[in-house]
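Internal QA ticket QA-208
Title: Verify multi-chain structure generation after dependency bump
Assignee: T.L.

Test input:
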Amino acid sequence: MGARVDTEVLVIGSGPGGYVCAIKLAQLGKRVVLVEREAVGGTCLNVGCIPSKALISASKLVQQVRHAATMGIHVDGVRVDLRQMMSWKDSVVGKLTGGVGTLVKGNGGQILQGAAAFVDAHTARVTRAGDETLVGFEQVVIATGSVPTAIPGFAFDGVNVIGSTEALAFADVPKKMVVIGGGYIGMELGGVWQRLGTEVTVVEYMDQLLPGFEPDLVRPVAKRFKDAGGIVKTGTKAIRWDPNQSGSSRLLVTVEARADQRQETIETDVILLTVGRTPTVEGLALTNAGIPWDPKQFLQVDGAQRVKGGPGHVFAIGDVAGQPMLAHKASKEGEVCAEVIAGHHAAFDARAIPAVVFTDPEIATVGLTLKEAQAAGHDAKAGKFPFAANGRALSLNDADGFVRVVVDQQTGVLLGMEAVGPEVSNLVAEIGLALEMGAQAADVGLTIHAHPTLTEAVMEATNAALGQAIHALNR
Amino acid sequence: MRYDFKLPDLAEGMVEGELVAWLVAAGDALKPEQPVAEVMTDKATVVIPSPVAGTVLELPHAAGDIIKVGATLFTLDVEGDMPAQKKAGGHTLDQGDAPEPAAQPEPSKPEAALAPRAPVAAATFEETPRGGKALAAPATRRVARDLGIDIGQVAGSGPGGRVTIEDVQAHQAHQAPRPAAATPRASTSTSTSSPAPTFTPRAATAPAGVDSEERQKIRGLRKAIYETMSRSKATAAHFTYVDEVDCENLFAAREKLAKVADKKGVKLTYLAFIAKASLLALQQFPKANARVDDQTMELVLKRHVHLGVAAATEPGLVVPVIKHADRMTLLELAFHIQQLGERARTNTLKPDELKGSTFTISSLGKLGGLLATPIINHPEVAILGVHQMQKRAVVLDDDTIVARRRMNLSLSFDHRVIDGHEGAAFAQAIKSYLEDPDLMLLETV
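Actual output:
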């Protein structure tokens, strides 16, 4: 038997929800123990957001160099040293995860390595390589995140059928890849390997790539993907995979068109399965703490991040606590949760959570789309501004896409923004702030935006929604 | 079997609670989670539910009783044996041994769960609504939460109905008095404890949503006054000293000198005399002509006197400042008081003429009343309020009653730096100059 630690708050999981929560708790004067069974930083820092963005940047640079002839730059013999690229990616990850550990400890938090399981409502057992520590706590925050979801016929084996984690750590560039699930993870990672030379086929069950985004937002992404040799099979179901006996590739994936049940096979070297993520509750022994759960469902929480139907001292944040599964939503929930535990009057009351997709080009949304706004009863109007009319986008040689802003015509209040194009992952922040401030569309439209920058497209789209665009015809 | 429910610590650091009301009676059959009592802590009123089913045996306290954390709040008769429950420490409850909620840490939020923990206890905490869509900036929403206000109920004055921090504060001011951090749970139980009303007030029949109120923005000068006054009241420890001044000699002196001044085009008012008297008194009590530097914990004594003379104007109170008033003759003071007063009324004062005062006089003139508690003009440490001069019946030493012109002075001081006897002595100095204006000749520059 191991030691016993008593603390005020136990945080299980050190991803962007858990570590932010732990730091905030420590800053608010709480004694906190942060438990992590794998690497500090969670999925986001180790095998998610950060390493994928590193590879996306690197692969985009390769592509730009290869296509720089338009600008009069001819580069011969571009050679990718994948080992070096991966080691650079790992160094980026290392800097951030190291920083997290330093911040948690520097604020007075304690990090405990191991897997946590509830013994009762106020005790958890943390196990690591046979060593056990009992942690007694007053409050507990479950921040265990999520894991990739498998589908029938495609169990993860780490070699043939892989998840996002393995797709960030190939030793060699695969010749062919089938991505099952054309959501943002599949399209981001598929894009990385496509730019590094892989022939990528995306199989998507729904009728468009990136389901959930408006079709016109997805169109520039699908076009670039196809122009670069990518194959898109939408409305298509993945049935099974087999070893390939005859062809040049190792595997054969059988897919079926939903419309006519016609089956076909696709040769590939690896199958990347990105159909979604499942909340991680396995092994936590939630029932020992009186926490109701359903293995297929997220933990249900209220605005104070308390688990509904559980004892009042149990909180959940991040992916395990529901959609959207986004790191920044987890972090915000972590801060709210910490403040609630410290006795502050906090609640998760954000008006909008931005979503960004690092495809080529990028997609970003925040707030309501035109359809959502109308469905919610707004007298809504959208204004759109194409990057083709933005000087900075043209000078970046990256002018596909547009910004669209949605406005309530009765009140003048901004309702949302969608964009596809260069750096829209950064541009969305402006409207995110505007939404939280309850800004008028005119507040954005009347603000001077520096020229020449991409941000002018946000201003122009807003003015277009008001019928006042300068650099586009107001219809 | 008996089951004693002990008062849990409902909030961090809580040692006792006051019983507000019983929500059940002895003999009542209870369901699990049924509310039993309302208990008030120093932070909030909370509803205590029964963790188990049973019949109420004893309610040993009366409303208003103070109950220690860990003391028995009520006793139930519970069917059969209590289920064995694991406690935080890991040991098992013996039969007949009631759970001890007080020994178990609970969430520190006032609306937190109160029931002793059972492995699959249903949630008893008030659920916090998720995803507020109020049209208000995040900082505004935080202010509303801190004040215990549902921002969805606040009328927004901003464009598109945006709720501002000022709107939230105004909403709170118009709410019925309630503790700032009142728990939402309290409202869920009031209906069970208050008798049904038999009289319907007229207001209840007014159309819903029509507020009989008018909203005026606190802006500009009003906002400046709002802030200055709040700051003064929040920092200075005010005390006010009131005394009565006999003005017969003052009256005679002014009658004589006013004619002379008149020829020079200056209106020699009593206020000029009072200003002069105050300036001379300040020479003897330099502590009253100072400011407090809170940062350095120092009293900063001013070697000059910039005299603030409060003036009522249409938009609100302004305090024009006579710079270096301590170097002025009575006539000069009268001249400047007149000039600045005129400019205040015509709103033509320059910003420079409205700042830098070191001591302030506030005269209510003919509305003067008997006494007032003037608020110190921050960051000064003293202020003189002047009341109306009027004839009063005065008992002289020989017991005769005569009519004499009298006037009250109300002086407020910052007790942090000026003690009562010093303030009183300063007031007496002013009084002595006004009761015998000739004395001022001795000091006049």
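Spot checks passed. Chain A has three domains: 4-147+278-341, 161-275, 355-465.
Status: verified.
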